[in-house]
Design a protein that fits this description.
This protein is mainly alpha-helical. Helix content is 49%, strand content 5%. Strand 3 (221-227) and strand 4 (235-242) form a beta hairpin. Helix 2 (62-80) packs across helix 7 (154-166), helix 12 crosses helix 13 (316-325) and helix 15 (347-369) packs parallel to helix 17 (398-407).
């Protein structure tokens, strides 16, 4: 007031989590007003801030005030539709990609915690409290690593965008190949899924640049620093460690069709020296990996429907070995065809369960009806009294659904039952019930309800 002479409402002031005025940088005063405010009870903003406003002194330092002011102005831009092009389709995957490219994650393992620590370095507890978003670590992790559709408050997007725009990056720690999963560059390999590579081993070269080493389930083992610009899930191969059996078989097939070594090398992009070794009968695959895969295949084939969990129980030591040395192959060894689970719940089972549960529901509804003073028999009340959860009522339980439809009480039926109870209670005490008294004790306040029940109440008062 001393500085500007007046206060006033602005749309940018009404976004939850905005602590400063985006125009003047002054702390905002929190005022709670009714959503049903009409012209007759209009509240002047100056009066509201001076009389009913909730004043807080944040005691911000220069850095904190600068951060909150930037977030407030970003929120104002959102309300005006002036969002920067890079944030037009902002979602967790975009935030995650930018964080990884800026080097906020030095390793894939523990990436969530590393980002949260960087966030806490930039935003103090005083600043975080102004957002009013509850547990900070929970919503920070969700906005970066949620893989499902989730609605976030607008201020969350403003805070994260300001964080990613302002936090200093370290290009030497940048993981330019993303967090996965990835496709396999070996076009000749047989894959049961489009993204067979789920895990990589992260290492650093002599220049401290981060690169990944992995082995696909097709046997193709390679190293890569980054992915294709047009396809972030396709690795750009830097070095091939093993070519895998599928590529070796293709080289032999090409040679049997009459192609010479140079033509084969050009077609499959493999050095001519390695092709000569393959054609001489030497396998370029590591014996240890091949042996583990062969042993795991034998255990898997001995199980019912190639069940991985059953194979793990049969040979836990082999499972741990292959999980450590060749995890991508392990993730690809699921059955080619899914076999349905045995039908433990046949038609007779559902009939018996339907009869038992419907009897419990009916007994619960009758129990509620017998209570005095009256309680409304709603679906929720019936389920709570019977101890049956709503999600357990499958479509097969038709009698249960029919009982709920029959026994639930409408609003009018409950009001009439309650009015009858009040009238009988008054007569038992020797008091002649009156219409207005019954409406008052029955908590019936609306004119439309009174008009609809007027005839019935008059019959109770006779």
């Amino acid at each position: 007031m001393a500085k500007f002479g007046e206060t006033y409402w602005k749309r940018s002031h009404q976004m939850k989590g905005v602590a400063l005025c985006p125009e003047h940088g002054e702390e905002l005063i929190e005022v709670t007003l009714s959503h049903t405010t009409t012209g007759a009870d209009f509240v002047n903003p100056t009066e509201a801030t001076l009389r009913i406003g909730k004043k807080t002194l944040l005691n911000l330092n220069r850095v904190e005030k600068k951060l909150l002011l930037a977030i407030a102005r970003r929120c104002r831009s959102m309300l005006k539709g002036q969002v920067e092009p890079r944030w037009q389709d902002a979602d967790p995957s975009l935030y995650r990609t930018i964080a990884v490219e800026k080097g906020l994650c030095s390793q894939l393992k523990g990436c969530q915690h590393q980002i949260f620590l960087k966030f806490k370095e930039m935003f103090s507890d005083t600043v975080i409290r102004t957002f009013g978003l509850g547990n900070t670590e929970v919503w920070v992790r969700k906005i970066f690593f949620s893989h499902t559709e989730h609605a976030f408050p607008s201020v969350v997007h403003a805070v994260i965008q300001e964080f990613l725009s302002s936090v200093p990056g370290d290009s030497t720690k940048a993981i330019l190949f993303g967090l996965g999963p990835w496709k396999c560059p070996n076009q000749l390999g047989q894959h049961k899924t489009s993204f067979p590579i789920k895990r990589v081993v992260v290492e650093r070269d002599t220049h401290q640049n981060v690169f990944a080493r992995t082995t696909c389930c097709c046997g193709y083992s390679f190293e890569f620093y980054t992915t294709e610009p047009s396809d972030p899930s396709m690795p750009v191969v830097h070095k091939v460690v093993e070519y895998g059996p599928s590529l070796e078989e293709e080289i032999r097939r090409m040679n049997s069709r009459g192609m010479d070594i140079i033509q084969i090398a050009f077609a499959v992009k493999v050095p001519a020296g390695k092709i000569i070794r393959i054609l001489k009968g030497h396998s370029l695959s590591k014996n240890s990996t091949t042996s583990l895969r062969r042993q795991w295949s034998e255990v898997l084939n001995a199980t019912t429907h190639h069940a991985v969990n059953e194979a793990r129980r049969r040979n836990p030591r082999l499972y741990e070995k292959i999980k450590k040395s060749d995890p991508n192959y392990l993730s690809c060894t699921f059955p080619l065809t899914r076999h349905p689970a045995p039908d433990r719940y046949n038609e007779q089972h559902w009939k018996e369960k339907d009869a038992a549960l419907s009897a419990r529901l009916r007994a619960a509804a009758e129990s509620i009806l017998s209570e005095l003073p009256p309680t409304r028999v709603s679906v929720r009340a019936i389920l709570r009294r019977s101890g049956i959860s709503a999600w357990s009522l499958r479509a097969e339980l038709q009698t249960c659904h029919q009982v709920l439809r029959e026994m639930r009480e409408t609003s009018d039926a409950f009001q009439m039952r309650r009015l009858k109870y009040l009238a009988e209670k008054a007569k038992a005490q020797g008091i002649r019930p009156k219409r207005n008294q019954l409406f008052y004790e029955g908590h019936i306040r609306l004119k439309k309800d009174k008009k609809r029940l007027e005839t019935y109440v008059d019959s109770l008062c006779e």
